[in-house]
Design brief:
Number of helices: 16
Strand order of the largest sheet: 1-2
Largest sheet: 2 strands, antiparallel
Mean pLDDT: 92
Number of domains: 2
Radius of gyration: 22 Å
Structural class: mainly alpha
Helix content: over 70%
Distance between the termini: 43 Å
Oligomer: single chain
Strand content: under 5%
Order of helices and strands: HHHEEHHHHHHHHHHHHH
């Protein structure tokens, strides 16, 4: 047993919740961002401004035509798998072999492909790391073992993982349509919390294909955390803190949350307020890519995703036009309400002594 533990340590294989649930999951979201999400944004820009190079197909593969954005989106599986391998510190041959693994896992996982890629890329990467550098024909053995293991597990478990993830996502979306007030609160609060925790809310939303009204609630929750923390900590952190949290990530506050968990009350309560407003009052929907549901105001990806969904709905004929009410709802939920509500709640918490000056100060 000690020899096996020493072997795992030598291979930098760390079986832990942090390595797989934080590092790998976060990397998966970045892989999705660099493929599916960017592809969607490129397609939206091409359609919106009628740019022929971006709007028209530039390649035909297997009878399927692809635009520039379409090619980006088609590579989401390989991008996720490579990002996961990088987070797991996979050696080059393992990392490159994960391109095939990611494509296979994502294809076989269907709508729940991202979750299948997460599990299978981790398995294939760790198995590949075990054999990497152990033979004189490493250039042959490592790719064969990594790809072989990855494709075998893709064939074996990707379909049920993908189907399970899709069912969970469908249930959440169905429940939100049925009970928009209650589910608006639940989804907004939970996804918002996930965004601030050192895990990836974007990857979670992508894994469960969280779109529609539930996606709109998720956007509300993420914005409540990011904008809420950014504005209520402005006195301590200034403009740099405002932008780093508001369009960067509220995860920067995790150290302060550990020291005083009560500073988290204001953003969480704010998300519980804005979530049902998003679902019940404005009917805010995320009909763009699911990964956007968990991005909030990070680079304004959440808002771009909502707009992309509007454009898609208009093209599909399910939406006539984008109204002033739509725009007002999006920006009230995303920016205005969190910027007003969270500081008010935080002021109350300061008055009762639960939060003190300096509790929100970011470390330099």
């Amino acid at each position: 047993m000690n020899k096996f533990k020493a072997f795992l340590k030598r291979k930098d294989i760390e079986i832990s919740a942090r390595r797989y649930g934080v590092d790998a999951l976060g990397a998966m979201a970045r892989g999705l961002f660099a493929s599916l999400l960017i592809g969607t944004i490129i397609n939206t820009i091409g359609t919106l401004f009628h740019i022929p190079f971006l709007e028209n197909p530039i390649a035909t593969v297997g009878g399927v035509e692809y635009t520039v954005g379409g090619l980006c989106s088609a590579m989401s599986g390989p991008a996720m798998a490579c990002a996961i391998g990088y987070a797991l510190k996979a050696p080059p041959l393992v990392l490159f072999s994960l391109i095939t693994v990611g494509f296979g896992a994502n294809a076989l996982g269907g709508a729940g492909g991202p979750l299948a890629v997460l599990f299978i890329a981790i398995i294939a990467a760790e198995i590949g790391k075990m054999v990497s550098g152990e033979t004189k024909v490493d250039i042959i053995v490592t790719p064969i073992v990594t790809i072989g293991a990855g494709i075998f597990f893709s064939w074996l478990i990707a379909p049920p993982i993908g189907a399970g993830a899709m069912k969970v996502g469908e249930f959440i979306m169905w429940a939100t349509e049925l009970q928009p007030f209650l589910m608006g609160i639940i989804v907004s609060v939970l996804v918002g919390i996930a965004l601030t925790l050192p895990i990836s809310s974007a990857a979670i939303c992508a894994a469960f294909s969280l779109t529609g009204l539930a996606g709109g609630a998720a956007v509300a929750g993420c914005c409540a955390q990011m904008v809420g923390f950014a504005v209520m900590s402005f006195k301590e952190n200034g403009w740099g803190g405002l932008f780093s949290q508001g369009i960067g990530t509220s995860m920067l506050q995790m150290g302060n949350i550990v020291r005083n968990p009560r500073i988290w009350i204001a953003p969480i309560v704010t998300s519980a307020i804005t979530g049902p407003i998003a679902t019940c009052v404005f009917g805010l929907r995320m009909d763009g890519p699911a990964v956007s549901s968990g991005m909030g105001t990070c680079g304004f990806v959440g808002q771009i995703g909502v707009y992309t969904g509007w454009a898609s709905d208009i093209a599909a004929g399910t939406m006539q036009s984008i109204t002033a009410f739509d725009h007002i709802g999006l920006w009230l939920i995303s920016i205005v309400l969190p910027a007003v509500i969270a500081p008010i709640i935080n002021t109350i918490l300061k008055k009762i002594g639960w939060v003190k000056e300096g509790d929100l100060k970011l470390a330099k």
